[in-house]
Amino acid sequence: METVFSRQKHHAVSNYLSSLNLHPRTHTQISIICVWRYSISFLNLDFSGKAIRPNEEPRKELHLLYTISILAYKAEYSDMAALNANGTLSCPQPMKATSNGVFQGDSPLDFALPLAILQICLVVLLTRILAFLIRPLRQPRVIAEIVGGILLGPSALGRNKHYLNKVFPAKSLTVLDTLANLGLLFFLFLIGLELDLKSLRRTGKKALSIAAAGISLPFLLGIGTSFALHGTINKGVDKAPFLVFMGVALSITAFPVLARILAELKLLTTDVGRMAMSAAAVNDVAAWILLALAIALSGTGHSAFVSLWVFLSGSGFVLCCIFIIPPIFKWMANRCPEGEPVDEIYVCATLTAVLAAGFVTDSIGIHALFGAFVVGVLIPKEGAFAGALVEKVEDIVSGLFLPLYFVSSGLKTNIATIQGLQSWGLLVLVITTACFGKIVGTIGVSILCRMPFQEAVAMGFLMNTKGLVELIVLNIGKDRKVLNDETFSIMVLMAIFTTFITTPLVVAVYKPAKRARRDDYKNRKIERNDTNTQLRILTCFHSARNIPTMINLIEASRGTGKKEGLCVYAMHLMELTERSSAILMVHKVRKNGLPFWNKFQQSGNNQVVVAFEAFRKLSRVSIRPTTAISPMHGMHEDICESAEQKRAAAIILPFHKHQRLDGTFETTRTEFHSVNMRVLENAQCSVGILVDRGFGGGTHVPASNVSYSVTVLFFGGCDDREALAYGARMAEHPGISLSVIRFTASPEIVGEIARVDINDDYNVSTESTDKEFIAEFEKRISNDSSVKCEERIVNNAAETVEAAKEFSRCNLFLVGRVPQGPVVASLNVKVECPELGPVGHLLISPDFTTLASVLVMQQHPSPVSSIGGPTRVTEMPAVDSET
User: Where are the transmembrane segments (predicted)?
Assistant: First the structure.
């Protein structure tokens, strides 16, 4: 009896299946079906169960191959095809959105909405845990998200089929992919907002040369590597699109990831950082153009002109956008002035334009992401409009939907497909080629551009950064059947490896030159012999809440009103986060010294500008706004380095707690407490901690209306002398009345302390210095009726507190952080906030009723070696008062 499946014909069908480039699971399913078909062929039955004649065998073979193709298509693309008992195809019903609840017998995992919620929660939880674990390694969060996606996929947890079928069943992947790609659409829009075309036009020849080398050499090496892959593990696909996809994948530099690595390493405003950012921006744009070409070449149309039409249509779309989008959005931006909230209709119109552009490019055959990216690039970056768009979109996209894309990629990544020495050898080849092309090409051109060798090597490692854009290229290639499972897994592992090694290699090879100690940095404290020299103060603030008190403190510190008497650097402390807007802020700060700031309902930036402008006009003080944008664990370095660079005599920091309406203190952010403590430990000048209780009220008080009462509580020691020196400076202001209370212990207390020998620190030399300083101060203010100096002899702690309470109606207390002397030893105050010291803690305790603000001073004892390293603080031109 002749059968359909002779040995030769069965071999032909197997080759046919191999040419379909199917998933291994799909190939197995089809093979089982072929065996079933082979068994019924012995009965001379056709597919409907009817007997056939021998001369109908060719028709049956054709029908069989056609059926196998249909089954392959169904299983590969929907993975939902199933065979009934009679061999016909059937697809399960799509998932309903919501369930009736477990009490009515419904399982939430069988319905789209609760299953999607579970998937999102699982993804966010795992990626955040991984990001926390790799934070000490200073790795970008994209590493945690890619690895988290792989762990949730078939490479790790997905090996448990029960878990995979319940949590990530095949029928739910359509919803998951849709949410992931929608989030990715808006994230590409945000990436476009980060790229400033004007800055690209200003890119120098050096950055363009480095970018060209960083693209061309890896692209050519990627094409060469693709021949090895195409001939071994990626057979059966068109060679041209595969070569281009491989070249693009190996030549990409992830611009957003690189920006965060530079910021984490505090290189963003160094020469290397600026060069790397410029070259990466050019590389990013070129990579998108090459990817558009690759997508056009990977079209499945039968005509040779289809790819040409796709490319020309995409080019026409970009040209239309260039002429249409900028004028429209510039008109919208002009109708959204600084400091006012952006009209909701403009935000909705922009987001709709992003979706429409994505629809157009998807219809053309490029990809929906290109349309969103083009809209983001062409939106004007000036003004508050771009920042408002970032604030509206970024949190939910970056924090919630974008991790879904990494999981979607992880579900497609099966490391188990990399089997055998050949496959692992190809993985090593791809990694070596990717690193060699980027690093060697960039180093070579950088040296030709006369960059120092150390900086050139750092540039090579930085330009080797991969990330989200790499995954986008790989996913598009897999969706277009250009990359199979094994090649896809190899490329994903390559992206993880190259990004992971960037930070440690840059740290190892690039040691920024430490800033030499300034020889002219002599006045590191307010207490000085020559009181006529200019006083430089670095005041820091966290938010708009701190600004009125800080400005009123500056006004009180300006002394006699001499133009060169006081110079103030007002530094806004901003945390560098994973959010794109943080990188936008860095670029804006580099331009004008003020942050790109939209945190306070679009009015915070306006409040800062108005406050400083009013102060400039109403006083004779030179004020220079600066900004420090860094992670919390390194913010103190920016503060200390900036103070040394500006030769500041004192740093004024806000206390990390603010007063509530009931008088108690509430912690703003605990991280700022650590920042303050590190500044106190590392600052090369005096430091003051300001506890704000509304000094001068909620607004700036003009100089002619200033009427403040300042009290200095003097116990002894260098910190108390610094507080008194600052008070003496304030006393020069005509609207300031100063009261100095010097606490002296009664002979009984002195004798008791001497017997138990509690306070060795307060030695004879310190006491003598205090007496000389007090005597000199009393001599200077002998003819000044606005200054009162009195001595209080106390017998115990209760008398000390009562004496201080007599001045509770003042506006500001000035105290030392570590007072010395026998009176302090008798206080025995439990200090919960060590940055305030015992007296400062007493003044803010609930038992001490006062509305006065408190400034706690710590004096820098003597000049020591300066803190090195590059500064990340940028400065705008001085805003001097008018002569």
Answer: 111-130, 142-158, 178-195, 207-230, 242-263, 275-298, 304-325, 346-379, 424-449, 456-476, 488-510
Helix axis angle, 368-378 relative to 173-194, nearest 10°?
20
- E strands present in 345-500: none
The DSSP bridge pattern shows strands 657-659 and 566-575 to be unpaired
> CA-CA distance, 749 to 826, in Å (whole number)?
8
Q: How far apart are CA 449 and CA 364, in angstroms?
A: 41
717-727 mean pLDDT: 90
Copy the structure tokens of residue 296.
């056009």
Beta bridge partner(s), residue 792: 743
Match 């919501």 to its residue by tokens: 98
What is the tens place of the pLDDT at every residue in 467-481? 778 888 888 888 888
Taking phi first (over 0 means left), then psi (-120 to 50 degrees means alpha), and beta for anything else, what does residue 716 get? left
CB-based contacts of 324, cutoff 8 Å, min separation 6: none
Cα distances from 863 to residues 524, 645, 685, 686, 853, in angstroms, run 7, 14, 8, 11, 30
Instruction: State the Cα–Cα distance between residues 132 and 119, nearest whole angstrom.
Output: 20
Q: Which of 303-307, 380-384, 545-549 has the lowest mean pLDDT?
A: 303-307
**Cα within 13 Å of Cα(309), Cβ side:** 11
Judge contact between 346 and 387, C-beta under 8 A. Answer: no
Q: Which helix (H) or strand (E) holds 371?
A: helix 368-378
Residue type, 86: N
Please report, as a single letter, which amino acid is at residue 667.
T
Q: How far is CA 276 from CA 4, 100, 210, in A?
A: 64, 55, 9
> Alpha helices, DSSP H only, in 20-172?
24-41, 57-77, 112-134, 141-152, 161-167
What pLDDT is attached to residue 295?
80
* Helix-, strand-, coil-residue percentages of the chain, each rounded to 5: 60, 10, 30
Q: What is the pLDDT of residue 813?
A: 92
Task: Tell which residue, 205, 274, 279, has the closest CA to residue 590.
Answer: 274
Arithmetic mean of pLDDT, 639-649: 87
Instruction: Report d(CA 4, CA 441) in Å as an integer.
Output: 58
The pTM of this model reads 0.70
CB atoms within 10 A of CB 133: 12
Chain position carrying tokens 């049956």: 60
Q: How many CB atoms lie within 10 A of CB 659?
A: 17
Q: Are 467 and 139 spatial neighbours (Cβ–Cβ below 8 Å)? A: no
DSSP label of 140:
-
- Name the pairing type of β-strands 535-541 and 566-575: parallel
Query: Could you tell me the sign of the dihedral formed by the alpha carbons of 253, 255, 261, 266, in that order?
Result: positive
Closest CA to 123 of 99, 98, 151, 96: 151
Q: Say which residues have a Cβ less than 8 Å from residue 299's Cβ, sequence separation at least 6.
A: 306, 307, 310, 365
- Residue 843 is which amino acid? L
Q: What is the 3-state secondary structure (H, E, C) of 205-264?
A: HHHHHHHHHHHHHHHHHHHHHHHHHHCCCCCCCCHHHHHHHHHHHHHCCCHHHHHHHHHH
> Could you tell me which residues are beta bridge partners of residue 567?
536, 622
Per the document, the length of the chain is 883
Kindly report the CA angle at 881 between 878 and 883, in degrees rounded to 5? Answer: 125
Domains present along the chain, CATH in parentheses: 7-90 (no CATH), 115-509 (1.20.1530.20), 535-858 (3.40.50.12370)
**AA identity, residue 83:** L
Q: What is the pLDDT of residues 36-92, one digit of tens each?
A: 444 444 444 444 444 444 444 444 554 555 455 555 544 444 444 444 444 454 555
The C-alpha atoms of residue 21 and residue 707 are separated, in whole angstroms, by 83
Q: How far apart are CA 152 and CA 592, in angstroms?
A: 45
Other C-beta atoms lying within 10 Å of the C-beta of residue 756: 8
- Residue 156 · residue 146 · CB < 8 Å: no
C-alpha span between 809 and 221 (Å, rounded): 76
What is the rounded CA–CA span in Å between residue 732 and residue 269? 40
